[in-house]
Amino acid sequence: MNKAKYIDHTNLKAMTIKSDITKLLDEAKKYHFKSVCVNPYYVSYAKEVLRDTDVLVCTVIGFPLGQNTTETKVYETKDAILKGADEIDMVLNVAALKDGLYDYVQNEIKVIKEVCGPRTLKVILETCYLTKEEIIKASEISKAAGADFVKTSTGFGTGGAKASDVKIMRETVGKDLGVKASGGIHNKNEMEEMIEAGANRIGASAGVKIMEEYDNE
Known about the structure:
The protein is α/β, with parallel strands linked by helices and 217 residues long. The protein has helices at residues 18-31, 43-50, 70-82, 94-98, 102-116, 132-145, 163-173, 188-197, 207-215, and strands at 7-11, 35-38, 56-61, 87-91, 120-124, 149-151, 178-182, 201-204. It contains nine helices and eight strands. The longest helix is centred in the middle third of the chain and has 15 residues, at 102-116.
């Protein structure tokens, strides 16, 4: 697969202004990344700019802590889709998972997937806060709830993607679900390490740098 199609070209920083997003979108069009991942505020603008391209618009829900109510996350998802989002990256409620409220966590993912319909739903586990057993459990719950991907990180936690966590996630969900590695992936070697571990999507703000490294081989 074209390496650019692994990448969700991302800018989720709090201080991101419209000119930063315009730059992100121009880069995405140039390299034909799989998607751009932007905060909900910029979804309608991204959709407008990318309408006649092969680049999808991805946004984040319950971001970055995941502890919004299910009802709030559902509303966020509906609003994002109305504004043009093609893919939804929702943050799992880590606290509920750690409290053993597995039915709650699974139902939340399930109802958000129902809202998404055919659109891709990725569940951000925030693996830096989870034990190996919790990563397995969160991955199992996400699969049972109908999610399309499990994802490592928001990029706003205490750590980002680790190949060892990606491997656990891939082994747990099998070959039918996607695994997205995100957070702290800065170069081609780090990206390839994640792909080797089982990731088939990469979230990175360094997409251009990574593609330049491939181009210069």
